[in-house]
């Protein structure tokens, strides 16, 4: 029985569509939604003067990610579904899988941007990485 559904978001239109599907599924199953967003790792390593820039970078990234999670929370509230949020720094596939484990989620819902060929190789696919490594069912919304 599915009791907790993790919904991963990057704020894109596709991930918002996946969130709507995930919340609808949670409502039908009587499950809780766990919204999940990954904060990017600061891309530079510096000391001294770089510290304020890193803090500003992380604050801006956290604000954007919380806005994305707020959208899922509103969907869940409107559907009468319980909601929790996970916001951590790291690579998205790692964060999604770690959150699914730590939050005891039975399923992961996420979007696929549908990149193929060279674009997929160059840009990578967080969805493919999660699919390859997850021990839980993953619902991919396109």
Short recap of the structure:
With 142 residues, the protein is of the alpha/beta class.
Itemize the secondary structure elements and their pairings.
Elements: E1 4-8, H1 13-29, E2 32-39, H2 50-79, E3 83-89, H3 92-102, E4 107-111, H4 117-123, H5 126-133, E5 138-141
Parallel strand pairs: 1-2, 1-4, 2-3, 4-5
Structure description:
The protein is of the alpha/beta class and 142 residues long. The protein has a single domain, classed as 3-Layer(aba) Sandwich (Rossmann fold). The chain has 5 helices and 5 strands; from the N terminus they run βαβαβαβααβ. Strands 3-2-1-4-5 form a 5-stranded parallel sheet, sandwiched between helices. β2, α2 and β3 form a beta-alpha-beta unit. α1 packs across α2 and α3 crosses α5. The protein is globular and about 50 Å long. It starts with a strand and ends with a strand. The mean pLDDT is 90.
Order of helices and strands: EHEHEHEHHE
How many domain modules? Answer: 1
Q: What general outline do the C-alpha atoms trace?
A: globular
Sequence of strands across the biggest β-sheet: 3-2-1-4-5
End-to-end distance: 25 Å
Rg for CA atoms: 16 Å
Question: In oligomeric terms, what are we looking at?
Answer: single chain
* Rounded average pLDDT: 90
Q: Architecture, according to CATH?
A: 3-Layer(aba) Sandwich
Number of strands: 5
Alpha-beta classification: alpha/beta
Low-confidence stretches: none
Q: Tell me the major beta sheet.
A: 5 strands, parallel
The CATH homologous superfamily is called: HUPs
CATH topology: Rossmann fold
Number of helices: 5
Helix content: 40-55%
Strand content: 15-25%
CATH top level assignment: Alpha Beta
